[in-house]
Amino acid sequence: MSQTPPAIIAHCDANCFYCSCHRVFEPELRGQPLGVLSNNDGCIIARTPELKAMNIAMATPFFKVKGLFNSRKIYIRSSNYPLYGDMSDRFMTVLGSFTPDVEVYSIDEAFLRFDGFSIADWAEHGKLIQQRVGQWTGLPIGVGLSTTKVLAKLANYAAKRYPATGGVVDLTSVARQKKLMEITPVGEVWGIGRRLRLRLEEKGIRCALDLANQEPSRIRKQFSIAEERLVKELRGESCLPWEEGSVGNKHTIMCSRSFGEPVRSKKEVQAAVATYASRACEKMRLQNKKASQAMLFIRTNPFEEKSEQYYGNLILSLPQASDSTQAWLKKVREGVNRIFREGYAYRKAGFVFLNISDCSINQGDLFESGQSSTGSMKVMDQINQRFGREVLKPAVSGFTPARWHMKQQHLCSRYTTCWNEIPVVQCR
């Protein structure tokens, strides 16, 4: 009887994801130093290798490099989350063509499990994954393959650190695992932060192999069960749970933004919070969830020490869990009326769902009718998914660009999620 091959786990991670999304549709940016800015064009949150080579650090305020931008020595783009979200969906869809077992870990990375696959050369299979993602989406990715999640992450670390690998590393061999762990600092192991690294180094554990050689039970006594699992994973024992679909299994859903300019009127604050609440409701419906509690907050700019400061927040409750935008907007209006104070310059607001449950769980109420999503909500979601975000939206959100909208002075087109911004190919 033939022996079933062990499960192999691949870790796939898009390189400089935000920047790469722009380069797909703006090929002139390839090879150029490019940075993506945070909300309101505040600071740099994503960099290409070319920008890193110019010693421009992460979180550098934009005003400090504006001179380089004006002289065309670097290129800058505002955050374009509709584009990033759609490109992420395309990326994950391609990965799903290789195996049904895909765990989406973040917007730009995922684990793939190959259980029962008879593949002779895993490195070549990794190159096939890399090639197909590049061909079908335009995104460059790194692929690490091994027998556990931690080792697969370690393999991808090597794929990105050592250009000779071509962005793909097969770490299924025990001998290769030990060789790589021997030259990898312990701080590069997935799950080890700065404080833990310092504690480990104090005990003489300086590389990944040092950690793998520790007795798991001893590490658990000195640290915790999380570190014990890391040791076991480095030894080739798969013990981290497989959480397929975990991205949608959230305990809270939040939508919060800093305003483009200070806002003083209640009407504008009401419109901003209503917009955030509407987006949070849409996210919740997409995840087939509902909630009975939410928190809204408004605040001034805490960094403006000379200005008067105020922070107001309130917990909102419904008698029954609901995913209805209409039901929650009534509560939002009441909530803003209670916490808004005249005379302050507000700079940020947010809406957070709490006590989220699955729509299949229905706790009835003796005195209230159900607050489930109505037909109008479903129609609105379908239209917005097809034609673009906020094609239909509640009137309270407003219809014209407002001061509380984010500053996005370097925003590119959405390309894939808006009919009016689809790229046009000119044949000559």
From TrEMBL:
Residue span(s) of domain UmuC: 9-193
Annotated protein name in UniProt: Y-family DNA polymerase
Top-rank taxon: Bacteria
Secretion signal span: none
Organism: Parendozoicomonas callyspongiae
A Pfam family that the UniProt record links to this protein: IMS_C
Record family assignment: Belongs to the DNA polymerase type-Y family.
Keywords in alphabetical order: DNA damage, DNA repair, SOS mutagenesis, SOS response
